[in-house]
Amino acid sequence: MDRQPFTSLFKDLISRLYNRIAVETHPLSPYFPVAEDSSTRRAEVIQHIIQDEIEQLRPEGKEIIIQSTEWRLYLILSQRYIEGQDPHEIAKSLYIGDRQFRRDHSRALQALSLRVWQRYFQPVAQPPGGEAIDLFEDQGAFELHAEQLDLNEVIRGVINLIARRLEIENVQLELALSPSLLQVFTNRILLRQILLSLLNYVLHLRGMLARLQPKEEVLLLGWGVPMPLPVKSRRYDDNFWRELFGAGSKKNEAQIMKELGY
């Protein structure tokens, strides 16, 4: 496995670092060192490993110099992935603009991913004349093989994986799966990760909307919408069309729909 695809996967992993389900099901997760008899969850071990690697990037010296590039990159990683601060707030604390923050953040992630790559994922070099040994040669860790999958089966597996979280958050999920075999040709791990990401996003959004007060607003498609959002249903009958096009209109629903191109 080349470092470039690893870097891409690592950026995805660290963006979900405190999402336990996402970390434990991530393609990189099985290859971090976790003792078999450890009582600590794999996600927590990975979190601690990455936090320790961030601390290893701390420049020498006790005085923090935010004008120093090394200090700035370390502070971005520490404040973002250890303290959990918002990117805009980090930029303000470092007296830099959002654009400069994005550049520095990208450089900081490159430095961090290189450390993790070299320590845990880089193939072991052999003496001259030998070949490098890939630590994952026999495990197929990053060879994303596509296969014929039953989509219904994959979805059921994902639901079972987050069943405990659904129970804790009092969420009832109704599945409407295809009654017949629904086959897709893709990689099982990536498909599962995509489905988990979608479910995690929906649960996060649900929790966020539930915490909003009546006078608060949520940004939907660029508009500030007061919450809770009232929903009123009605019938699309002749009265609806008369209200829409005026009481004097003699056209019926079929004529109006035809003019609208339906």
Descriptive account of the structure:
This protein has helices at residues 3-15, 20-24, 42-56, 69-81, 87-93, 98-121, 151-161, 163-168, 188-211, 238-245, 253-259, and strands spanning 147-150, 183-186, 217-220, 223-226. It is mostly helical. The chain folds into 2 domains: 3-121, no CATH class; 147-214, no CATH class. The strands form 2 sheets. A two-stranded antiparallel ribbon has the order 1-2. Strands 3-4 form a two-stranded antiparallel sheet. Helix 1 (3-15) crosses helix 6 (98-121), helix 4 crosses helix 6 (98-121) and helix 7 packs across helix 9. The longest helix has 24 residues, at 98-121.
Question: What is shown here, in short?
Answer:
This protein is mainly alpha-helical and 262 residues long. It has helices at residues 3-15, 20-24, 42-56, 69-81, 87-93, 98-121, 151-161, 163-168, 188-211, 238-245, 253-259, and strands at 147-150, 183-186, 217-220, 223-226.
